[in-house]
């Protein structure tokens, strides 16, 4: 069921048809890969960590099946009011912390962006309605150039992925997000 | 079936091949097998290829795996009770997740969000079979098959709730216990927010490679157990096992009985008495009126003294179908757990049978055994459960969709 790759390609191409035309018309001599809007991706193993409220994350493998590099610059979902692209790094104390990835994730043609616990991920903040195990959690991926791709994820119970969030002074973690406070604490608007 | 290698002379050929082909590299193995070779027995060929670890069965299909698929060496029967508040919608989420886990694990890859995907790379014939107890079907607001209920009480029973009933069954089986342990844990983790563990019963047969596959198992009484059984892939099997009824069409039922074998009192019985109690020779499994395991028993044959050779209260005389529909498919396992109390062992049978309708097919047999069966002297059912095993699903679907969708 979730073993079948998300058929993002068709919807992406459909969604992007207009954008692609526009881009081509104005960029005969544009050679930068980043300007391409023809997003052609295959997504597998996409899942979202179940949570009652607060912060959680979405993971999965996104392969760029197109001929040019693409850049994932943002994501949105009805499950959360605030979504960021995060990377994870080890802090001085050896603990893992995560922060927003400036400029998003560029995926070269043929490469796969792996979003996984302890690594890069899509951070959902300000979850107010519980994300229950087994629920469908659709996430919209936004690529540079205006292309969007719908990614179907499934919620899974998972006790890992507890990296500290260093987006602002009020540190929280996904684990304790339920009591960590309101949306504003993790809004990350100011970083 | 023809006689095994040893008597046909093929054993010699095989031994030559082993010694010739494998040359000196076998070292210790050769030394160990020399005695057997000298005694004229077939020498074992060690399977060091790892090929059995790679064996994978299909999760998707008309029927769930683990019933008609070849029986593996280890099985864990795990029963869960649903948490309060789990409704039809939640059951759908649960079965979608569990089906996806099972499909991936059976392919030999980690489940989604598997924290130990490395342990999944050796499927070793892994099968995962889901079963629904009456509580599950009720929460699903589904029509409950008339037979989906605890079995009637039998006089021989001494049932313990700790081995009985349950809302959801996970049956995980493979030729490798690491594989089983990992799969069970993965499934239980994903069931954690829906249900709690009620019981877990682990069983085993001979390890893969220890004997020719397809050899009828021996239970811990030493009996050849499983001779008279429908064969998967035959019309008889299909008729006996698969339901054709509503959301259960393509599914079946599981009767799981935990039957304690009192090995301490069985020890006191000599081989003749042991054979007499079953109606089959304890060493070969042949009926007392024949010479080979596959021989048909003759229940009419008499001794010079005028008694039937096969006692009318022997286990096979009592468990034979009286009505033609009283046939079940047995696929049990042994268990052996640390003893409590004085005995040196606590062993028995995880008697597992599959049949389209247990009340029609299983219960009459169990009734007869309850009334009279020499084996009852040494056996006691201490656990009992009935589960509906729904049909399989195709890729993109999930087990239970015929009830929940
Ligand atoms: C108490 C523990 C039991 C032991 C140790 C045991 C053992 C055996 C053995 C050794 C045989 C003969 C070989 C064979 O055909 O497989 C046999 C046959 C059989 N047993 Fe059991 N059994 C037990 C319980 C049961 C129960 C609870 C049932 C079902 C209610 C059952 C049903 C059968 C059937 C249907 C056969 C085949 C009879 C035939 O030849 O047609 N047994 N069992
Ligand atoms: Cu994060």
Supply the key terms.
heterodimer, A: 191 residues, mainly beta, 2 domains, 12 strands, 40% strand, disordered N terminus, disordered C terminus, B: 405 residues, 5-stranded antiparallel beta sheet, 4-stranded antiparallel beta sheet, binds protoporphyrin IX containing FE, binds copper (II) ion
Please provide a written account of the structure.
The complex is a heterodimer of chains A (191) and B (405). Chain A has 191 residues and is mainly beta. Residues 3-36 and 175-191 of chain A have low confidence and may be disordered. In chain A, strands 1, 2, 3, 4, 5, 6, 7, 8, 9, 10, 11 and 12 form a twelve-stranded mixed β-sheet that branches. The longest helix of chain A has 19 residues, at 8-26. Chain A is built from one helix and twelve strands, in the order αββββββββββββ. In chain A, 10% of the residues lie in helices and 40% in strands. Chain A folds into two domains: 1-31; 41-188, Immunoglobulin-like (Sandwich). With 405 residues, chain B is an alpha+beta fold. Chain B contains twelve helices and nine strands. Chain B has helices spanning 5-8, 10-22, 28-38, 88-107, 134-139, 177-191, 235-241, 263-266, 271-278, 315-319, 358-371, 401-404; strands spanning 74-82, 127-132, 168-174, 195-204, 252-261, 329-330, 333-337, 346-355, 379-389. In chain B, the strands form two sheets. In chain B, strands 5, 6, 7, 8 and 9 form a five-stranded antiparallel β-sheet that branches. The relative contact order of chain B is 0.17. The model of chain B is unreliable at 1-39 (pLDDT under 50). The A-B interface holds A 1-4, 45, 47, 49-50, 59, 117, 132-135, 154, 156-158, 160 and B 90, 92-94, 96-97, 99-100, 103-104, 112-113, 115, 189-190, 192-194, 395-398. The complex binds protoporphyrin IX containing FE and copper (II) ion. Residues 219, 221, 223-228, 257, 259, 278, 280, 315-316, 319-320, 328, 349, 351, 362, 365-366, 369, 375, 379 of chain B line the site of protoporphyrin IX containing FE (HEM). The site of protoporphyrin IX containing FE has 25 residues of chain B, from strand 5, helix 10, strand 8 and helix 11.
